[in-house]
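Case 479 in the screening queue. Each case pairs one protein sequence with one candidate compound; here the compound is zinc ion. For every case the pipeline is the same: read the inputs, emit a complex structure as tokens, and attach any notable structural observations.

Predict complex for case 479.
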Amino acid sequence: MHEIQVHNTYSGKVEPFNPLRAGEVRMYTCGPTVYDYAHIGNFRTFVFQDILRRFLKLRGFQLTHVMNLTDVDDRIIANAAAAGVEIREYTEKYVQAFFADCRTLSVEAPEHWIRATDNIEPMVELIQRLQQNTYTYDSEGSIYYRITKFPDYGKLSKIDLAGIKAGARVDNDRYEKESARDFALWKAPKPGEHFWETAVGPGRPGWHIECSAMAMKYLGETIDIHTGGIDLAFPHHENEIAQSEAATGKKFVRYWLHAEHLLVEGEKMSKSLGNFYTLRDLFAKGYKPSALRFALASVPYRRQLNFTFDGLQQATSSVDRLRNFAARLKNEKFPTGKNETMAVRIAKAADDFDAGLSDDLNTAQALAAMFDFVREANIAMDKGEFRSSEVKTAQEFLQSFDKVFVVVEDNDAEKLKAIGFGAAETGPGDAEIEKLVAERQAARKRRDFATADRVRKELDERGIILEDTKDGNVRWKRK
Ligand SMILES: [Zn+2]
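Case 479 output:
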């Protein structure tokens, strides 16, 4: 196995990854702000962190991973007030939709899903620690963080603080790099908006304090990995560092990993351009969850991902190629014995796969390792050179591949059904195909050619091609 290396935004370098406690990884991911459905740009980041956590688990690390749901922020407060409902009621629909989307895309549940509204107390305690350490000041019922008091401010996002006016403040949760300002830790209540009565006064937390407080509550004062989209590096993550380190005097995060943006057909995704997609928009167009996951995972996380419909179509074919290969391994009869060259080839593919993911999660390299092997193994099978002894090791490689990429097992139809796309014809599953193939084989054996032809025709209409092999077996593949 190869040494795992990751790019740390804080140092700006690719570094060997060594968690604080050997064998254990404590990781925090900024989850969605649940005021709307998450879009494919959000899911680019969530699939990246899923590939990361699955790879770390495959490599034997014990993972404690926290993902939060931001269910208090400017937009939620405003939208809930406008709708005249409590914020929990307003966000619930989007929380449930997010969970369902994650399941559909095989984004594994972290060890802890947490909500900001369940963690107001640790946020208040953290603000009190910052008050004791004199990093804060009050203004009109709100509490602000004084960034000039924290000498490391700006080191994550590499901003130049030369032009910063001391005492200039910002109340918005989101703002641009050019306007680095003292930011609100606690916001005074506004008429008609939700607030909490707490030891630091009535009001509500700022977005940034939420993640600092929740990360430290569940993972301790120093955590191994913090992930998020690159747009969160400033101000959100910069502010998380300032808050956490000013309170504890300790390093907050050892490795910062950020995923790059997603473009759609070469352009920034936006509602006004009409190129804004949620998962459901794409499923409604007939694309499968596995193809979408593959497309989002296939570009290494630090490269911009240009999402295109051609690319999604290619991802669909790539997933089919893997599934057909898995079916060949399972269904075909190979000549008995051992092929030493192929045994070496499988070991090399597995090693290349590990090397790719170890190299700052280079998913393109890891996928190339698999597809090169699949191509060569298919050729060997066609020539009758693939032997029975290699079936098990090839299957084991495919299984460890799928522990990370999670696209080989065909459960698209049931996943789509679970989120209300059941009516869409997604083609028969492996088990049903194999049953029909066996039926046809039995019919041929008893020389009932009418039945055999009918089954072949039915499968053909449903997108499955049969190929009769010389030894009397049948191979099937999806069109
Ligand atoms: Zn966060």
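Case 479 observations:
- The chain has a mean pLDDT of 93.
- The pocket of zinc ion is lined by residues 30, 211, 236 (CB under 6 Å).
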